[in-house]
Amino acid sequence: MADSLADSLADSLADSLADPLIYARAVHFGATMLVAGAVLFAVFIAAPAWRGAAGNSAVAIKVRARLAVIAWIGLALAAIAGAVWLVLTAAAMSGRPAAQVFGDGVLWTVLSQTTFGRAWLTRFALACALAATLPALLAPRDRKSPWLEITAAILAAAFAGALAWSGHAAGGLGDEAIIHPAADVLHLIAAAAWVGALLPLIVLFAAAGADDASLTMARTATTRFSVLGIASVGTLLVTGIVNTYYLAGSVPALLHTDYGRLLLIKIALFLAMVAIATVNRFRLTPQLLQQNNIAASRDALRQLRRNAAIEALAGAIVIAIVAALGTMPPAIHAAHQHPTYGAVPADAAFVHIHLVEGMADVTVMPGRTGRARAIIRLWDEDFEALEARQVSLTLTGPGATGKPTTLPAVQRRDGAWQVDGIALSAPGNWTVSVDVALDANKRLTLIAPIVIEPGP
Amino acid sequence: MRKFFLLVSLFLIPLAPVAARAHAFLDHASPLVGSTVAAAPHEVVMTFTQNLEPAFSTAQVTDSSGARVDQGKAQVSGNTMTVGLKALAPGSYKVHWHALSVDTHTTEGAFTFHVGGH
Question: ipTM of the predicted structure?
Answer without folding.
Answer: 0.74
